[in-house]
Amino acid sequence: MSTVASRPLTEIYLSGVRSWKKRIIRLKNSVITGVYPASPSSWLFVVIAILATMYTRSDPSMGLIAKIQEHLPVSQSMSTQCQAVVSAVLFSTMLWLLLIFTMRLCLKQLLSYHRWMFEQHSKMSNTTKVWVALVRIFSGRKPLLYSYQGSLPNLPVPAIKDTVKRYLESVRPLMDDTKYERMTKLAEEFESSLGNRLQWYLKLKALWASNYVSDWWEEYIYLRGRSPIMVNSNYYGMDFLYVTPTPIQAARAGNSIHAFFLYRRKLNKEEIKPWLLRSAVPCCSYQFERMFDTCRIPGTLTDTVQHWQDSDYIVVYHRGRYFRLRVYLAGRLLSPREIEFQIQRILDDPSPPCKGEAKLGALTAGDRIPWAKARMKYFSSGVNKRSLDCIEKAAFFVALDDDEQGMMGDDPAASLDRYAKSLLHGKCYDRWFDKSFSVVYYKNGKNGINAEHSWADAPVLSHLWEFTLAFDSFQLGYNAEGHCKGDVDSSLPRPQKLSWEIPPECEEQISQSLAVAQALADDVDFHVFPFQDFGKGKIKKCRVSPDAFIQMALQLAYYRDQKRFSLTYEASMTRLFREGRTETVRSCTNESSAFVRAFDGGETADVCRRLLRAALEKHQLLYRMAMTGAGIDRHLFCLYVVSKYLGVESPFLKEVLFEPWRLSTSQTPVQLSEMFDSVNHPEYVSPGGGFGPVADDGYGVSYCIVGDCMINFHISCKRSCPVTDTHKFGAQIRKALHDLLQLLSPNQKEPSKVEESRPEVKKDL
After folding, report:
1. Cα 389–Cα 221–Cα 661 angle in degrees, nearest 5
2. Would you call 115 helix, strand, or coil by DSSP?
3. Are 212 and 157 in contact (CB under 8 A)?
4. Cα angle: 419, vertex 227, 507; to 5 degrees
5. Is 423 in contact with 448 (CB distance < 8 Å)?
6. Phi, psi of 12 (to 5 degrees)
């Protein structure tokens, strides 16, 4: 009896120890990050150096130590020598802080230099070489994840005339002479009158805030949107394409959930390396802060993003029931085998859902205002509030799906399309779309991830996903039967089923939200395919950027598909600046449209080749300008926000901000290739992820360049649009890629087509 009674006390004690360890680690990291690029030990070095010079009868402080000693409030018992030492330590500390401030200021100025971005890596100027050396000197050693945050420059506000000029240039290929002349007049009126007034407020914000764009971008683009976030905002990531490490659903969940929490541990300790461009230039890491323990909370006017301290549990959804699963016991993280055991308990649990519980998640998939009102009315007290709090404060959300997904069966291409739709929206009620991310585990051992967009952009989540996939397969592995390795303690407390009391009125709202979400989900068409005829290896041999090459192929494919050009969005990042997120590269340019017209119009190969290279160079220039703060769209967006605050109308800004992006594109970067064994296990590749179409009559295209021989595409559109078709567009993309490669390397034989589908491989590592 005494053992039973002492167990809760032991749990409380060990949980407290774990909590205090985390606080100490956070405090230590705060100190290390706060004094970066110096180190805490450098303080001791400065103190010893100053004391040593004092004992040699010299005064490095030029009388300041004596001044400090005069005004030192000390007791009469302290000797003169002791007072001198204390004064010297105080002076040393002030000198050390001044040196840190100076080093950080120098690093910030150095990181404001961006000419390196516009130079070829092999033809670096002497100025840039000196700059790289200085950056490495001032960057210190072994930076933590957030070490560079205080040294990153602020995003600059471009000049109004530059932004307007770039905008007009970007829309020229999309307008006839009459429309372009009208837009030019609107732009000139804006630039000469209202624009300067709005710009003044924007410059004031840039002086005061860390980033003049990011908070407004998060609020007005994401959180104030009142339409469903499912499909319209959330995005997904896929599992390995050709491999399923284990066919056992619970085992796959056990390994990867364990890997997620190992990543969170590294994140809390700031052991994840900051992302460095060219191994020297740091990128902002602030988006990592809200990765775990985060949820979007609905509101009638605007949603909010809430982040809590480390949760010791996850919430698992299975067959209409929600379970709370603790992953820490007595202060330690459960082993993969123990998590598998707990997941299997949930899979085997025969209990039915509570009344109204099964499709509760549909509230997060429908319109935001009904969800906000329902949350306030039905979930603000009692058992419903406790259960909802449990979901929202969980580390992340897990869905155990009874379906089988992945590349499989007689039609692997169609199975990938179904897999994409399952990850993006599922059944519209079996995901919690408000959580920062939800992980889906399928019956056949496949998995995938669905992410809410407001807290961070895809490359941040992709870093977590790549780590989890690699750690699951190459570090943890499975035994011969496909189960997680290790032993299990069968006395683990069972996962706790959440309770609900859903009234009939709330059930009616759940049904209405589900109807809205289902209509949206049914309207989305997807086509996912791995392009394996060639990859970046052959593209680079043509001495062009792979990303620019793919963007030009998309322009050619879109023109052939739609017989016109459209405003094209390519996501670029501005993480070279503090709290930077994204900027738009307008990929449809005068140069790209000239090339496409010439190529499809039957011009000679030499002419087309020259026009293509000009278009590729222009795209690279636009991409670099976007990365270095000289983009168009975020500046115009912020000017529009200021105009709304001031209550003034701008015909120019109104027209600009409501132009439809009929071709929205994004590249998913591969960041942790060193964790994958591409030599011995080349089949372990993920096809990346995708998103829904931005415009009702447009396409969403996500692509991932994997290794030297593969490019994965995820294409989406609306079935209700009579002029878009993902499969036809996919065929046009394939043809355009071959045409461009043939044009740039006319003497090279057309690569032999590789079979797109390989047999599914079950691996036990």
Report:
1. 135
2. helix
3. yes
4. 80
5. yes
6. -65, -45
Catalytic residues: 453
CA separation for the pair 453, 106 (Å, rounded): 34
State the Cα–Cα distance between residues 707 and 681, nearest whole angstrom.
12
Q: Which two tokens stand for residue 402?
A: 């009874």
Tokens of 66: 């004596």
**Helix-helix angle 458-470:249-268, to 10 degrees:** 120
As given in the structure block, the two tokens for residue 12 are 């409380």
Distance linking the first and last C-alpha atoms of the chain: 44
DSSP-derived letter for residue 753 is P
**Residues 475-521: tens digit of each pLDDT:** 999 999 999 998 888 889 999 999 999 999 999 999 999 999 999 99
Which residues lie below 8 Å from residue 664, measured CB to CB, with a gap of 6+?
568, 569, 691, 693, 694, 695, 698, 699, 700, 701
- Give strand ranges (E) for 302-363: 304-307, 313-318, 321-326, 328-329, 332-333
Residue 163's alpha-carbon distances to 133, 191, 453, in angstroms, are 33, 10, 27
Does residue 763 register a pLDDT over 50?
no
**Rounded distance, CA 77 to CA 85, Å?**
15
Cβ-based neighbour number of residue 679 at 10 Å: 6
> How many Å apart are CA 636 and CA 649, to the nearest integer?
14
The one-character DSSP state at 478 is B
Give the C-alpha separation, 426 to 524, whole Å: 12
What is the rounded average pLDDT of the residues 707-712?
Answer: 90
Neighbours of 558 (CB within 10 A): 27
Contact between 699 and 717 (Cβ < 8 Å): yes
pLDDT category of residue 750 using cuts at 50, 70 and 90 = very low
Q: What is the mean pLDDT of the chain?
A: 91
Q: Is 334 exposed, middle or buried (0-12, 13-18, 19+ CB in 10 A)?
A: buried
pTM: 0.91
- Cα 244 to chain centroid distance, Å, stands at 25
Above 70 in pLDDT, residue 609?
yes
Tokens of 47: 């103190």
Alpha-carbon span 402 to 422, nearest angstrom? 12
Helices (H), 542-659: 546-562, 590-600, 605-627, 633-646, 651-657
758 pLDDT above the threshold of 60:
no
Please spell the DSSP secondary structure of 507-544, one letter per residue: HHHHHHHHHHHHHHHHHEEEEEEEE-S--HHHHHHTTS
Distances 370 to 189, 506, 545, 592 between C-alpha atoms, Å: 42, 10, 46, 44
Per-residue model confidence as pLDDT tens digits over 216-233 = 999 999 999 999 999 999
**Residue 697 φ/ψ, nearest 5 degrees:** -115, 30
As a whole number of angstroms, the distance between CA 301 and CA 372 comes to: 9
- How many residues are there in the chain? 765
Q: Can you tell me the distance from the alpha carbon of 452 to that of 431, in angstroms, rounded to the nearest whole number?
A: 11
Identify any residues that bridge with 325 across adjacent strands, giving them in sequence order: 314
